[in-house]
Specification:
The chain has 618 residues and is of the alpha/beta class. Helix content is 36%, strand content 24%. The chain has 3 domains: 3-242, 4-Layer Sandwich (Glutamine Phosphoribosylpyrophosphate, subunit 1, domain 1); 251-455, Glucose-6-phosphate isomerase like protein, domain 1 (Rossmann fold, 3-Layer(aba) Sandwich); 461-600, Rossmann fold, CATH 3.40.50.10490. The chain has an 8-stranded antiparallel β-sheet, with helices on one face. It binds fructose -6-phosphate. Fructose -6-phosphate binds at residues 310-313, 357-359, 362, 365, 409-410, 494, 498, 614-615.
Length: 618
């Protein structure tokens, strides 16, 4: 969950590292540091807190060298402090690490018994000790790394340098992502291509247990068993502008506003504009579109679908369950990846496992994918990050096409996934003759109208900017929804918790009377998602129950609805749409509500405390 970067080249090393760390800050932001070669030594500069603290320390510093490494941390072993910040320096070795070493206790005991002086609480420093011991015995850095890899259990991506070889970096990984960037007379290594895309779009993705030796501007990659290998160089199609705030106060705000555009993007390749049919474009692992007949034949065999994901992607999956079961009548199970991977699930033959992940790197989701694959299941992924680990390991690949999402709280990745899930469900429904061609056309037309309807809902921005001033004084928040709007209720609560640090709960509206109703009084905000659909009347009864107990109601409904308006303190109208798309329209006001509450409280919207964008540890 940390971000790491390494650089060799003619540019100002501290600037390249710092700019890269800025782009990686979403991965962790409780401390940061760099080690840069300067007049016969690696000078380490570290600071607790966000990157601006490191910046203050770097300002005015000059380094003569062409090589350096950097790190932004999300604490696992040891509190956020300068001592625990990376790079760790032991003897001649400087090192940055992302991940968790599971056998660190054992390694530490052995090191301490051997007389090593450990100065931090981290597992990462121990790796620097192990490498340092090897180097002291006369090995070069590459050999030293080879010697210590078998001693490490757990997840890691690491870049190490040695004073003995001041033009060399060794990078290696097991689990978390690592990408090599090939520039002109310069070379990079980083946790994510975003960190280097300003310099080069030519990259190589490292696989687990591969080792790269970077020496000057040359590199050599070695397989897990130590043999030199050639790997494909990918040209990434990622624009640096997509990573800037473009005048918005926060990335999250920009990303909320981008939703109409990226949702249109997400559906673009999958709709035949002449026939108004869904022509699903699924890629195989070689980046080729799977032929329509093959896809149809393959998916016709599917008898059960498991959707596996975490956090917001999990809520997208729950929503997908409503769509697929309704439209295609295929049984669907949705599970948190962190549960699925350990509960020894029964995955019958002809099951499809659909994994959803914005980052494509979430450790639990990746492990679930691998486990399901081992059991013979076919994997379909929906990722945002092209060539991320999950995307690379899936058999069928769909994409969110949300562009880079920087705000730690996910917004546009959710609505684009919901869009793709609609296309997938319609495709399955028509191929199984559960949806006729008139119904398909109607569904496709409503999808095409969705981006402009989303634009209308963005108008609630100013409403929440104002309402946040009073809403922030309430004791708690309950979000209610039924059917496909139930996942929306849970997503609304998650957004508020992670951004505004306020207690919020998402509940199935019909379940409220079985317990949570006891919470309701006039200090409780109850957000009811009640657009016009088959369960609207039922939700209305639940809303009456809330009103009778004095809850401060915010209702979301379809267009002008006097009844809902009279029952609530604030009524938010969404445009008329189909049952399956109402949730996409309803979730936008909830994103804006969480955003404004957090901003009004003066909190860091883009980097909420304790979180990280890409959870590459268990
Ligand atoms: C919430 C949020 C997280 C992620 C979760 C999964 O706003 O961003 O809950 O949704 O960590 O991440 P991905 O989709 O990258 O697997």
């Amino acid at each position: 969950m940390c971000g790491i970067i390494g650089y060799y080249g003619n540019k100002v090393v501290k600037d390249v590292l710092f700019d890269g760390l800025k782009k990686l800050e979403y991965r962790g932001y409780d401390s940061a540091g760099v080690a840069i070669y300067d007049k016969d030594q690696y000078r380490v500069i570290r600071a607790r807190g966000k990157l601006n603290h490191l910046k203050e320390r770097l300002d005015g510093e000059n380094f003569s060298g062409k090589i350096g490494i950097g790190h932004t941390r999300w604490a696992t072993h040891g509190i956020p402090s300068e001592t625990n910040a990376h790079p760790h320096q032991v003897g001649k070795i400087s090192l940055v690490h992302n991940g968790i070493i599971e056998n660190y206790q054992e390694i530490k005991e052995t090191l301490v018994r051997g007389g090593a002086k450990i100065s931090s609480e981290t597992d990462s420093e121990l790796i620097a000790h192990l490498i340092s011991q090897e180097v002291e015995q006369g090995h070069d850095l590459k050999k030293a790394v080879d010697q210590i890899i078998p001693k490490l259990e757990g997840a890691y991506s690491i870049v190490a340098t040695s004073l003995d070889e001041p033009d060399t970096m060794i990078a290696f990984k097991n689990g978390p992502p690592m990408v090599l960037g090939l520039g002109k007379e310069e070379i990079f290594v980083a946790s994510d291509a975003q960190a280097i895309i300003h310099h080069t779009n030519k990259v190589i993705f490292l696989e687990d247990l591969e080792v790269v030796k970077i020496q000057g501007t040359n590199y050599e990659i070695f397989s897990a068993n130590g043999f030199p290998i050639e790997k494909n160089i990918h040209t990434l199609n990622m624009s640096p502008e997509a990573i800037e705030k473009q005048g918005y106060k926060h990335f999250m705000k920009k990303e909320i506003y981008e939703q109409p555009r990226v949702v249109a993007n997400a559906m673009r390749d999958h709709i035949d504009l002449e026939t108004l049919k869904v022509a699903l474009e699924v890629l195989n692992s070689e980046d080729q579109i799977i032929a329509a007949e093959d896809l149809k034949e393959d998916l016709a065999k599917v008898q059960r679908i498991f959707i596996v994901a975490c956090g917001t992607s999990y809520y997208a999956g729950l929503y997908g369950e409503y769509l697929i079961e309704n439209m295609a009548r295929i049984p669907v199970e949705v599970e948190f990846a962190s549960e699925f991977r350990y509960r020894h699930p029964v995955i019958p033959e002809n099951s499809l496992v659909l994994v959803i992940s914005q980052s494509g790197e979430t450790a639990d989701t990746l492990a679930s994918l691998r486990m399901a694959k081992e059991q013979g299941a076919k994997i379909l992924s929906i990722c945002n990050v092209d060539k991320s680990s999950i995307d690379r390991e899936a058999y069928y690949r769909l994409f969110m096409r949300a562009d880079v999402e920087i705000g730690v709280a996910s917004t546009k990745a959710l609505t684009t996934t919901m869009t793709v899930l609609n296309l997938f469900a319609i495709y399955l429904g028509t191929s199984r003759e559960q949806i006729n061609s008139e119904q398909e056309k109607h569904l496709v037309r409503s999808l095409q109208a969705l981006p402009s309807e989303m634009e209308k809902v963005l108008a609630y921005d100013s409403f929440f900017e104002d309402a946040a001033k009073s809403l922030k004084d309430f004791r708690g928040f309950l979000y209610l929804g039924r059917g496909a709007n139930y996942p929306v209720a849970m997503e609304g609560a998650l957004k508020l918790k992670e951004l505004a640090y306020m207690h919020a709960e998402g509940y199935a509206a019909g379940e409220m009377k079985h317990g949570p109703i006891a919470l309701i009084d006039d200090r409780m905000v109850v957000v009811v998602v009640a657009p016009s659909d088959s369960v609207y009347e039922k939700t209305l009864s639940n809303l009456e129950e809330v009103r009778a107990r004095g809850g401060h109601i915010i209702a979301i409904g379809t267009e002008k609805n006097e009844k809902l308006k009279n029952l609530s303190k604030h009524y938010l109208a969404i445009p008329k749409s189909t049952w399956n798309l109402n949730p996409i329209l309803s979730v936008i006001p909830l994103q804006l509500m969480a955003y404004h509450l957090a901003d009004n409280l003066g909190l860091d919207v883009d980097q909420p405390r304790n979180l990280a964008k890409s959870v590459t540890v268990e």
